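ok, trying the design again with the full structure, not the truncated one.
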């Protein structure tokens, strides 16, 4: 049968795929795409790596991208955001799940005895900056009308938007997001003090008897404000490997969390807005996580798996859930300054953004009015000298929040780096077995590498292959869910 002529195919994607399929090494191209598990924006690298004997400098193995079918190596982007790369975000969520679960149930280098330590799941919310449209429910979960008199649907676009936009405190809302990380740090300081006070110890003495470990993740509410979900655990002085003292109980930890949340405050002073005190909101939820020897809440036990799954779900989300955009708004040419240097000591208006510092006019953004006003407030405050250190123009697309979405204390459990390193080691070992290469001792070998960034993304034909991988994986997940539901 005559092979099709790619030049007669109107679709660029199909034309490129036919060209790739006609190559003798098409199977290697297909394998390179499948190995990325559906990544949407892989990184293209060129370079080489050489493994030498550390003593004799004999070349034991040499790899160069010149031997690849298309002369470059595809590497998964590793983006945690589901809006950017669903495939890599699922890997990130899985790693986060195992990290959180290890700190609750043990494993991955964490002893199983942490399951018997006092543990609580706490949610710290933002305060009110004005009434917003919401969907209140009764204790049984039955919704009733908002204060505007309307019973909003679960996905109604007005949820989270101000009832009176002109009276809403947008400045306070943006400053809270910008200082949420600092407020969390202040909370952890007061938490240790509260635990020490409840035990009749000083903060210094507490280190000799007990250690507070935690892991937290940030989540954006519909109103555009962040709140934190955190696992807090009491350990012995050396962390999870040692048992906490007898006085360290779930009730003591619960009281300490509530006391610390009420006392934590960050004061912001500015000539433009005066003095503001930023605190957590009044809605603070603290629940004990079920232990193997007893259930914290017989009616609705909070299990290790449920908490780990809950944390992992939000680790891959960002501010897009509020309706904002998932990219920076500042002009890349002038870095948001509105001016570019010409000769030493002089600047001129940026031609790319016409001096606005914005990549796109705020009025052209396809976002709700509430989100646009949050972004506009970020841009306004970011231009004030008093708030220059907050980099609000850089983080305007995040509505002012510039902290990490997930963090943990040092001895809570394993690290994401350790989990990723173990996965890379396993993948390298599988490749070694597949290629029939001998085992090399890292202690007696030296690896020299030289890698350079080439581009991002696939060729059109590779994109079709990647989409096939995504479709197949989506079908597998759907069948698995349907099987589990039966």
């Amino acid at each position: 049968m005559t092979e099709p002529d790619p030049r007669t195919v109107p679709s660029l994607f199909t034309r490129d795929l036919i060209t790739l399929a006609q190559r003798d090494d098409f199977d290697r191209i297909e394998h390179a795409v499948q190995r990325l598990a559906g990544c949407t924006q892989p990184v293209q690298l060129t370079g080489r790596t050489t493994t030498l004997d550390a003593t004799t400098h004999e070349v034991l193995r040499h790899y160069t991208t010149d031997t690849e079918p298309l002369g470059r190596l595809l590497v998964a982007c590793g983006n945690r955001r589901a809006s950017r790369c669903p495939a890599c975000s699922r890997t990130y969520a899985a790693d986060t799940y195992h990290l959180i679960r290890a700190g609750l149930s043990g494993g991955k280098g964490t002893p199983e005895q942490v399951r018997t330590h006092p543990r609580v799941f706490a949610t710290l919310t933002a305060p009110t900056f004005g009434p917003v449209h919401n969907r209140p429910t009764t204790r049984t979960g039955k919704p009733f009308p908002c204060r505007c008199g309307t019973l909003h649907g679960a996905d109604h676009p007005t949820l989270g938007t101000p009832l009176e936009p002109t009276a809403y405190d947008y400045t306070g809302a943006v400053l809270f997001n910008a200082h949420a990380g600092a407020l969390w740090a202040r909370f952890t300081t007061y938490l240790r003090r509260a635990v020490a006070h409840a035990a009749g110890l000083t903060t210094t003495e507490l280190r000799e008897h007990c250690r507070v470990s935690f892991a937290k993740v940030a989540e954006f509410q519909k109103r555009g404000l962040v709140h934190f979900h955190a696992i807090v655990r009491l350990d012995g002085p050396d962390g999870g490997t040692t048992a906490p003292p007898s006085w360290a109980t779930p009730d003591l930890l619960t009281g300490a969390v509530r006391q610390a949340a009420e006392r934590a405050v960050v004061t912001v002073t500015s000539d433009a807005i005066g003095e503001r005190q930023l605190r957590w909101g009044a809605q603070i939820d603290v629940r004990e996580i079920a232990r193997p020897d007893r259930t914290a809440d017989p009616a609705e036990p909070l299990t290790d798996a449920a908490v780990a799954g809950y944390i992992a779900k939000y680790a891959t989300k960002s501010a897009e859930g509020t309706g904002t955009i998932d990219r920076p708004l500042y002009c890349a040419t002038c870095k948001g300054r509105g001016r570019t240097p010409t000769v030493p000591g002089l600047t001129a208006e940026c031609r790319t953004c016409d001096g606005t510092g914005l990549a796109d006019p705020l009025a052209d953004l396809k976002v709700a009015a509430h989100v646009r006003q949050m972004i506009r407030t970020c841009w306004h405050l970011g231009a004030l000298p008093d708030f220059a250190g907050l980099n609000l123009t850089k983080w305007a697309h995040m509505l002012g929040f510039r902290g990490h979405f997930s963090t943990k204390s040092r001895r809570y459990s394993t690290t994401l780096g350790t989990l990723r390193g173990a996965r890379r080691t396993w993948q390298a070992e599988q490749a070694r077995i597949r290629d029939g290469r001998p085992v090399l001792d890292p202690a007696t070998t030296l690896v020299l590498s030289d890698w350079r960034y080439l581009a991002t993304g696939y060729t059109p034909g590779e994109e079709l292959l990647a989409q096939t991988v995504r479709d197949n994986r989506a079908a597998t997940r759907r069948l698995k869910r349907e099987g589990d539901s039966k």
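Keeping the full-length input from now on. The radius of gyration is 27 Å.
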